[in-house]
Structures are given as C-alpha cells and as structure tokens.
Design brief:
The chain is α+β, with helices and mostly antiparallel strands and 174 residues long. The protein contains three helices and seven strands; from the N terminus they run H-H-H-E-E-E-E-E-E-E.
Length: 174
Amino acid sequence: NFYTATVYRKGAEIIRMYETLLGTRGFRKGMDLYFERHDGQAVTCDDFLAAMADANGADLKQFARWYSTSGTPTVTHSSKYDSEKALFQITLSQESRSEEPLLIPVAVGLLDKQTGEEVVPTTTLQLKEKSQTFDFPGIKADAVPSILRNFSAPVKLVPSSGVVDESERIPLME
C-alpha cells in the first residue's frame, strides 16, 4: 500500500532534506523548474530529483538512494579537539540497509565547552562515505558539537561509545 503514514512521512523528510542540501534559494529554484517542466502531469520521484539537480547544477544521484532504502539509518559521531593546532574534528559514520552509502545532510554547529556560546554557526556537512572526518580550523577552545540541527536528516544519532557522556552536556538553563 503506497498510501501509508510511513510513506508520507518518509516523502516529507526527503523533500525537507532537499532544502537542507540545496538551501532555501536552491530548493525554490528546483521547485520552479519542477513546476515549469511538469505542471499538471503525472510524475515520478526521479522527475522531482532531476528538477532539483538540474536547477542547481548538483549531482544528487547518491541522494536518490533514500527513495529505495528501507529503515532508518544510524549515524555515529565522535569528536576531538587539538589545542596546539586550534582544530576541532568531527567524525561521522553511517549504517543503513543500503549497500552503498547514502548522502546524509548533517547540520552542525559548535558551542564553546565552557560558556555554551556558539563558536561555529550552523553549517551543513554532506556525509557521503561510510565514515568521514570534518575539520573545523581556527577553534580557540574545546567545543561541543550540536549535531542534526533543525532535524536535518531522519537518522538515529549515537555517540561512538554508544553512551552519552553527561559531562559533555551544556545546560540550556541554570
């Protein structure tokens, strides 16, 4: 049955991820091209993908795997800070039922570990491999990553140890 709540939720999540990957303007360009090409027609998910890709000059072939992959992917994260190099690194790894890695948009920001102030505003990382390390140079003090901001992808997020370290949490209110 194609008319289940799961199918509708997954479709909505995929469309939301297009906007995360392409930005608001890029998503709008894709929508404009989609309607220009297909208004009033019966279309496929591939038609929508092609409009988004063509309007933005983007290669979204890897992203298309979301349409055929069942289940919820898991993204594992770890981070480290090198004070001598002023370098913060986040390593992300993915597991899914897809034989090949998905393209997962991961919106991340960095918060100063002592003050809780934002030191890196939201940026969208593109997790394209089974495991990738992303560098944030010029970070003057240790930080805490804020991962999957705005629910950038429908994934299960777990720390690499599998256990949340309470000392890493920054209280929202005192």
